[in-house]
Amino acid sequence: MSEPLNRPVRVGVVGLNYWGPNLARNFDKLAEAELAWCCDLDEAVLDRHRGNYPGARFTTDIQDLLGDDTLDAVVIATSVPTHARLATMALEAGKHTFVEKPLALSAADARSVADLAAEKGLTLMVDHLLVFHPAVEKLKQYVDDGTLGRVFYLYGNRQNLGIVRQDENALWSLGPHDISVMLWLVGEQPVEVSATGESYLQPGVEDVVFGRIRFASGVIGHLHLSWLDPHKMRKMTVIGSDKMVVFDDMETDRKVTLYDKGPLPRTETYGEYIQVRSGDIHIPKIEVTEPLRLVCKEFVDAVATGGTTRADGDAGATVVEVLEAMTTSLNNAGAPVAITGKGS
Ligand SMILES: NC(=O)c1ccc[n+]([C@@H]2O[C@H](COP(=O)([O-])OP(=O)(O)OC[C@H]3O[C@@H](n4cnc5c(N)ncnc54)[C@H](O)[C@@H]3O)[C@@H](O)[C@H]2O)c1
Predict the structure, then answer these.
(1) What is the DSSP letter of 312?
(2) Neighbour count for residue 160 (Cβ, 10 Å)
């Protein structure tokens, strides 16, 4: 491993229209980072940010960043079809690379970006933002420390009225969040997925998708993704053998609720009724921290120390493999599709 950097990590952000400015703001605020470059093809977009970052250099050409030997890392917040190409360019130029979700539009491209980062010994991180949410951190703690018992299944609700997209369906637009959280919480490779959905507003662009992920141990993850729904829901529920937990991002004071509910262990005789138990309900305090700040901090820390991140190239590629396999299933009336993993 190389020597740790004992200075702020010099970062350049590419793509500054809608989401990129949130990344630029967070990297700029971190003591461990220095926002050195802002890049966008569109001068008018750049003009909106010049006043905020007087210390940064502005350009419409990513080559200016790639050719700057003093720049440590490139952050890609451009439109999704450009991710794999720009990430490959950044890694080829020897830059640590942060890519917005999803890492690529195909599993093969995502895996090749992840492999390139590994081959070059560079940090590659994908913005799986929700994995860094303090409430998801709490769920992960409950899974890992045995509070829930054995995890049986989990499901995510991500529904709202709008934003209706034209260039991607509800699966690709909304799914990366819940898929990345499920993979992180369960901590196993998915083995099979299926998905059904329908396009009502535009031909070929599904407005609602119901997806299913099966893990080797038998854990099932289910997703309800829709931009055509009267409810605004941002929820993840995990059912364990001992307890059940709900993360509801629409709540302010009770983001996480832990239910002491579950089946009573069968005492003996075969054929006896399974009884259930309903005990206390606990609401843990969840820190209010902007998850994107935690994402940016984990990236610069990994760059500075050569350490790992929880949203590395492998995690990014696995999410795209699940999205791609679900798309195959969607196009085949929900038929199950095996996930072979690691680019095979
Ligand atoms: N993590 C999240 O919660 C979250 C939320 C919203 C968007 N996003 C992601 O952020 C990314 C950007 O989304 P957006 O809505 O801001 O997209 P956008 O299309 O509004 O903006 C993309 C910008 O990138 C610029 N760009 C494209 N190619 C470029 C190149 N080669 N060099 C320099 N600039 C280039 C464009 O000029 C544009 O200004 C997407 O990957 C999206 O999925 C993530």
Answers:
(1) B
(2) 15
pLDDT in tens, 201-237: 999 999 999 999 999 999 999 999 999 999 999 999 9
What whole-number distance in Å separates Cα of residue 78 and Cα of residue 96? 17
Q: How confident is the model at residue 268 (pLDDT cuts 50, 70, 90)?
A: low
Within the chain, residue ranges assigned H as helices are 20-29, 43-47, 62-66, 83-92, 107-120, 134-144, 170-186, 291-305, 313-330
Measured in degrees and rounded to the nearest 5, phi and psi for residue 216 equal -55, -35
Q: Which domains does the chain have, with CATH numbers?
A: 9-127+292-309 (3.40.50.720), 131-289+322-338 (3.30.360.10)
Residue 45 CB–ligand 1 contact under 6 Å? yes
Residue at 338: amino acid letter: A
Distance 26 CA to ligand 1 centre (A): 16
Judge if the beta carbon of residue 76 lies within 6 A of ligand 1.
no
Answer yes or no: is pLDDT of 1 > 60.
no
Q: Is the full-model pTM beyond 0.85?
A: yes
CA of 249 to the centre of ligand 1 (A): 24
What is the C-alpha R_g of the chain?
Answer: 21
Instruction: Output the CA 82–ligand 1 centroid distance in Å.
Output: 9
